[in-house]
């Protein structure tokens, strides 16, 4: 299983140069059965990463460009009256896929953003009173530009909470950027990525996450971290039980990716910024960027033992 995971990481790293840790974090999110939010400036490789993950996992893939005039029906589908059969016929939208790239999700209105809530939470959509199941597995990989940029609509807390992780890619290092200057444009190599895993193997890895052990001491450390976010005066609100469970699941997946059968405190510390950063706000400064600083404050204030 470890060799299979390394093959997945190696294939994606071929097209996303110099971003090994970010790729590993993104794969952790998908193996933990979660949805991923990629936030960064335009042109940083967010779409390339999403497409590469879909290719390497061998999953069907649809992309929706979110704009201010996008409607919910453009995502979930619409029923159209068929005169020949004298009945309405449902035309499924792009959400009926295994990997949905919601590109620039914060450039559309809250009404359209909310069209994804049911899909992400319950893996189904309801159209015209009829509920339709989505494919299994189903992942949403959304990209968003910083809210300081014009034409953006901040995601509400309920929408953010549906994303298991939020990560940033950042600028490439000098070596990776020079390689791109020499003609190694990552987007040109996307079609060279071949599936490295079957659906059966993917399910096996996801089920293996549940077998990773977490000791009582480790769970105690996790609870102290969560309790700190709920009681420290700097925090506007703390992690919810769902957020705490998300942190534990991602820590187990991170341990699995590194070939361990048990969770270490370092695993929680590694994934907590991506899991909790978008779920926390500073009581004095309610901006979207305060969460990472609060995570660092919790990690530095709570003893492991």
Notes on the structure:
- The protein is α/β, with parallel strands linked by helices and 305 residues long.
- The protein has 2 domains: 2-182, Rossmann fold, CATH 3.40.50.300; 210-301, Magnesium chelatase subunit I, C-Terminal domain (Helicase, Ruva Protein, domain 3).
- Helix content is 42%, strand content 16%.
- It has 13 helices and 11 strands.
- The strands form 4 sheets. It has a 5-stranded parallel β-sheet with strand order 2-5-8-1-9. A two-stranded antiparallel sheet has the order 3-4.
- Helix 11 packs across helix 12 and helix 12 (265-276) packs antiparallel against helix 13 (291-301).
- The two termini are 32 Å apart.
Descriptive terms for the model:
single chain; 305 residues; Rossmann fold; Helicase, Ruva Protein, domain 3; 5-stranded parallel sheet; two-stranded antiparallel sheet; 11 strands; 42% helix; 16% strand; globular
| Class inferred from helices and paired strands | alpha/beta
* CATH topology label of the largest domain: Rossmann fold
Q: Provide the CATH architecture of the largest domain.
A: 3-Layer(aba) Sandwich
Q: How confident overall, as mean pLDDT?
A: 88
Q: Could you give the order of strands across the largest sheet?
A: 2-5-8-1-9
Short structural description:
The chain is built from 13 helices and eleven strands. By secondary structure, it is α/β, with parallel strands linked by helices. α1 packs across α2 (20-31), α11 (241-257) packs across α12 (265-276) and α12 (265-276) runs antiparallel to α13 (291-301).
């Amino acid at each position: 299983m470890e060799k299979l995971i390394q093959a997945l990481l190696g294939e994606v790293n071929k097209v996303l140069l110099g971003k090994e840790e970010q790729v590993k974090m993104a794969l952790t999110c998908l193996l933990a059965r979660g949805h991923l939010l990629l936030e960064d400036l335009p042109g940083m490789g967010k779409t390339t990463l999403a497409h590469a993950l879909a290719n390497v996992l061998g999953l069907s893939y649809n992309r929706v460009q979110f704009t201010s005039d996008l409607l919910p029906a453009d995502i979930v589908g619409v029923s159209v009256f068929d005169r020949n059969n004298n009945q309405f016929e449902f035309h499924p939208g792009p959400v009926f896929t295994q990997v949905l790239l919601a590109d620039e999700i914060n450039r559309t209105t809250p009404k359209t953003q909310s069209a994804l809530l049911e899909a992400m939470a319950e893996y189904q959509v309801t159209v015209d009173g009829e509920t339709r199941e989505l494919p299994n597995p189903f992942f949403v990989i959304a990209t968003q530009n910083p809210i300081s940029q014009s034409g953006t609509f901040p995601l509400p807390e309920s929408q953010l909470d549906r994303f298991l992780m939020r990560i940033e890619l950042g600028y490439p290092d000098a070596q990776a950027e020079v390689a791109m200057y020499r003609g190694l444009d990552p987007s040109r190599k996307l079609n060279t990525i071949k599936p490295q895993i079957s659906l059966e193997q993917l399910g096996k890895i996801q089920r293996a996450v549940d077998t990773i052990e977490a000791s009582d001491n480790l769970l105690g450390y996790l609870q102290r971290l969560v309790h700190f976010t709920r009681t420290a005066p700097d925090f506007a609100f703390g992690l919810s039980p769902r957020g705490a469970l998300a942190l534990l699941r991602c820590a187990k997946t991170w341990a699995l990716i590194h070939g361990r059968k048990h969770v270490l405190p370092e695993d929680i510390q590694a994934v907590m910024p991506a899991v909790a950063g978008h779920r926390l706000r500073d009581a004095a400064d309610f901006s979207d960027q305060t969460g990472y600083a609060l995570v660092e404050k919790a990690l530095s204030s709570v003893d492991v033992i």
